[in-house]
Amino acid sequence: MALGLFLAARLTGVAVLTATAWAYGKNPLWLLGRSWDSGWYVGIAAHGYGRIEHYPPKIASDYAFFPLYPGLVRAVTEVTPLSGGAAGLVVSWAAAGAAACGLYAVGRLLYGRGVAVALVLLWGVLPHSVLLSLAYTEPVLTALAAWSLYAVLTGRWVWAGVLASLSGLARPNGLAVAAAVLVAAAYEVVRRRGRNVSHRLWTGAALAPLGWCGYVLWVGVRTGDPLGGYFAVQRRWGSRFDFGVGALHQARHLVLNGGRFVFPMAMVAVAVSIVLFALLVVDRAPLVLVVYSGVLLVIALGGAGYFECKPRFLLPAFPLLLPPARALVRTARARPWHATVVVGALAGLSFVYGAFLVVVNQTPL
Hints:
By secondary structure, this protein is mainly alpha-helical. It contains 18 helices and four strands.
């Protein structure tokens, strides 16, 4: 049921986007498979790394993009007649389905079937959930993260480490999965006072950061600066970690002067995420979920540049939706009509805003 509702939501979103694209005289398949970062990933899948574009004062290198997603796209193009963009959509849509199943597994393990269904549904109708239908990496990261966290919650440490390592090859903020696994493992060791700790826990903890560290080191070696090369690439893109100073300046500018619609929406999404994280902590969610969500928040809020992209960076932070999912289930039991109106309103916003972001908006996603 949960997967069916998720697919229905996303297919409806794609239908609205397609109709909007046709109304504007644009090709919906091109928009879905080649928009913004998708073009970079498809290029890496086809030609490997080495592309550099100059957008003064920025110097854009494809080393900024982690290799797992383009590797999967390349694999699909090798075994099917699909082109890069279409193969990217196959990978993203399959990953989105796997992510929805992972969210359901986590939600059901912790709070039961009803909350699990609500969690998947809410994730599928977020205002920025259109990104789950594009040739983007967020579905891949979320799928790996959800199943890695589920593995931690069920004591499958080696699987947790393997999936965390793959998460680190999917996106820069895949580091959050490794951090969550490592903190959860450390907590388990302390709780047991170092006694009767399985070798599987140590193995999983050792595996967790390998993907992220391996790619960062590889880029560093390729650029001649083993420890700092990757971060230099990001700085040339205009992206750096400044502990939130840039985000605060951007938020202040928006409050005082306004801005294009996507920027206030991004600010609202960030503010809501902070509130939801506080609720997650108050609800005493499992440590691994709190750490994962917290690190994603720190990475998103602490990074300077591309303020409009912050909701995308937070899309994999699905544990933040556990408190509203539980509230939605309580509302559905007491006042079913109210819950229906809430979900319908969120879905409508998601479909319309998603079409606007991809078809009309000229700001990078």
